[in-house]
Amino acid sequence: MRRMTGFGFATITVLALGFAAPSAEANGIVYIGQDSSDHFGSQPQGVTLTKNAVIWAGGTATPSIGLVGDGVSFGGNTQALLNAAGFAGEYTLIAPSALGSTVLSLYDLLYFAPTTSSADTAFFAASSASIASYTAGGGGLVVEPEVFAAGSWAWVPDAALIGHTDGTNICGTAPANAVTIVTPGDPVMAGLTDAGLSNWGCSIHSEFATPGAAGYTTLAAATGGPADIISKEAVPEPMSLMLLGTGLVVAAYRARRKGANQA
């Protein structure tokens, strides 16, 4: 029984030293090259896409969301979209001009609504370092901006590596603006179909030529073209791994020492 006490002590030590500090890992990032907010009224799968992206990137079924933007563009309404997706009480509006003074860590997820304003994207760019730090420190991110504002993708984390395009806007009838799900088993794609993501009028607003260069997964793509929806999974940062490794080593040492004393 006394030896079992030593084992229990070691287990507690592992838990305390290995997991006491918050894990510095991002919940996830999802970049959507089409604007669900503008189309969800006529295309119900926009709600499913947004719900999946928010839950996955936010790391929980009910994440606290910082909705950046006024939530309205081209007759679409991101607030109505989030309401329809079941997040009516989970989001707080953040004006683009207030982004620089906002404590981003208050939120599990930042959701950047579509905008046609270059002034908005200028505020985003001014906060790009803070946004990158936020995602690296554990914050989730969903972005679906329009292509009509200059620099609409240039400010996002990993922008240069994913090969973002500001000028792509694929419209017309099938197959011109068709979308193909590339990774059907991914949780962000759950319940979605090729047909449901295609032919929204202008289904594809932005493409990503080289998402894999920054560790992103292609979830959906313009048929015969580059990626249109991409995601990046959470990865533990070196400090988290070091803390866990240190906890395991110390726990093993203490257990062995305690066992020797009790023998």
Tell me roughly what share of residues is in helical segments: 25-40%
| Sheet of most strands | 8 strands, mixed
How would the global form be characterised? Answer: globular
Look at the structure and give the mean pLDDT. Answer: 80
Distance between the termini: 12 Å
What class would the helix/strand composition place it in?
alpha/beta
The number of helices is 9
> Strands of the biggest beta sheet: in what spatial order?
5-2-6-7-1-10-9-8
Poorly predicted tracts of residues: 1-26, 238-251
Order of helices and strands: HEHHEEEHEEHHEHEHEEH
Oligomer category: single chain
Radius of gyration: 22 Å
Roughly what fraction of the amino acids lie in strands? Answer: 15-25%
Number of domain units: 2
Number of strands: 10
How would you describe this structure to a colleague?
The structure is a single chain. By secondary structure, the chain is of the alpha/beta class. The chain folds into two domains: 2-20 and 239-262; 28-235. 36% of the residues lie in helices and 16% in strands. It is built from nine helices and ten strands. The strands form two sheets. The protein has an eight-stranded mixed β-sheet. A two-stranded antiparallel sheet has the order 3-4. A hairpin with a 2-residue loop joins β3 and β4 (76-77). α1 runs antiparallel to α9 (238-262). The longest helix has 25 residues, at 238-262. The protein is globular and about 45 Å long. The N and C termini lie close together (12 Å).
